[in-house]
Amino acid sequence: MSQRDIAKAITAMGTGLGPDVLTACRALFDAEQRAGEVPPSARDIAYGPHERHRLDFYGARDEVLKPVLLFVHGGGFVLGDKGEKEPGDWPNAAVGMMAAKLGMVGAVMNYRLAPDHLWPAGSEDVGAAVDWLRAHAAQHGGDPERIVLLGTSAGAVHVAGFLRLRGDHADLVRGAVLLSGLYGYTPLDPKDERYYGAPETYAGKMPREAVAATTLPLLLACAQFDPPRFQAEFLGLMTERLERHAAMPRSVTLSGHNHYTMAMHLGTADRRLADEIAGFVEDIT
Fold this sequence. Notes:
It is a single chain. This protein is 40% helix and 19% strand. The protein has eleven helices and eight strands. The longest helix has 18 residues. The protein starts with a helix and ends with a helix.
């Protein structure tokens, strides 16, 4: 399937979310992702005590340590997995594979899920994974001084929440890539109360101030067919960054993609976002 045909199919889906859309999106990239599959160099490495505290690694070890790209998957706070339970289970794992192909060490993490684990569990788990990588990344070929975070959807929220929770974040990681996240520029969606709890508590939990104020290098991205709320969040953060820092962060508005395909297509022949991520990592590490 050509990139043009894929873009047409995504355009026809519009901005909706749901299992049927997710399945249709996966089908668009399944053959190409399977053909380019890179097996993990290490699987199910524990970074903490919970059964969800697990990392998979991608990328061969070399004599020189490589930058580490830590990917935090989406799933509406209640779903998602780092992938690679078996060969061909490429969603989310594809981001680690992409990192390996770009000359990095890809680390793909699981984290605790709502409703059993409420705010700020996901962000705490990002912090725990970063702390573990700082101590152990070199064993997997990664440079603990060159860690970059990448989160999509709920994963972007957890990365932003890590910036909020950890005042020392700029000493721990070199930068963060946030794909289609929710930072607090729009009201809490009722379904997200499964993670945040009562809506009246949301103002004190949202990561908006952290991502607006941080001096950490950021790369922000939004899809052409992201739902309007996600687009409003992207524009809100871009505007506030401009007002507070007199400059916007690096950013991408990715045409021909939707909320799911933002991360799902990484590692395919459509290299626009992958090249932006690679350039960002190279510049800050």
